[in-house]
Amino acid sequence: MCAYSVFNTFPVYPLSAKPLILLAFCRYRYHTSLFDIPVFTVTKAVETKLEASSGINVTIGKELPEGAYLAADTMAAESIFQTRPELKEELDGFLTVYQISVRGAEGAIDIKDTKVKVSLPLTDVLKGYKYYQAVYLGDKTERYDAWIEGDNLVFETTHLSEYAILGSDKPFEKAGTDVPKTSDSGAASALLIMAIAAAGAAMVVRAKRLEK
């Protein structure tokens, strides 16, 4: 579009304003022709948050079937130690134990290989310690570091089941397990990196064309 056309496109503006309009238009045309940046849509990772009547809540990194609900509460420690007496020595700083599961119309919903954030109300039993761990009581125990957020004790894991909570004023001798990133968040990060790389490539190509 020529300068004459731009001036006459805005006949109602005073003459003193038309040079500014022309300048803005030219800068817009220059930048839009120089950078034809492709548009990528990055899908946000799906999360499902559930809360039990006990005040325990979980945030699960995937979509769950309709009607899914959280069943979570404390358990009697005796029931654990009677069936697995070896845990008395292994669970240093034992405070309490929780049974945490997601259920649906057809029973328990298997939650595994998915990042899960568990939030427990900070009861009197849990208060007063500097370091915390949550221990998965599967066939093989797994430790996860826990921390206080507001009025809750929080930890992250990749599956739900029975968890013992440990408290201590000194760091635990056994370190907590690192929770891997979920596939959804990894895919979103990959798409974002691809978008940035494609945008950079488009800028380089356009700049080289202008140099010729």
Quick structural gist:
The protein is α+β, with helices and mostly antiparallel strands and 212 residues long.
Termini Cα gap: 23 Å
User: How large is the radius of gyration?
Assistant: 29 Å
Q: Give the topology string: H per helix, E per strand.
A: HHEEEHHEEEEEEEH
Helical residues, percent: 25-40%
What's the helix count?
A: 5
Oligomer: single chain
Q: Given the helix and strand composition, which structural class is it?
A: alpha+beta
What is the strand tally? 10
Low-confidence stretches: 182-192
The main sheet comes to: 10 strands, antiparallel
Q: What amount of the residues lies in strands?
A: 25-35%
Overall geometry comes to: globular
Structure description:
The chain has 212 residues and is an alpha+beta fold. The chain is built from five helices and ten strands. Strands 1, 2, 3, 4, 5, 6, 7, 8, 9 and 10 form a ten-stranded antiparallel β-sheet that branches. A hairpin with a 5-residue loop joins strand 1 (48-51) and strand 2 (57-60). It is globular, with a radius of gyration of 29 Å. It starts with a helix and ends with a helix.
Give descriptors for this structure.
212 residues; alpha+beta; ten-stranded antiparallel beta sheet; 10 strands
Walk me through the topology.
Layout: H1 3-9, H2 18-34, E1 48-51, E2 57-60, E3 69-75, H3 77-83, H4 87-90, E4 94-104, E5 107-109, E6 116-121, E7 131-136, E8 142-149, E9 152-157, E10 162-168, H5 183-211
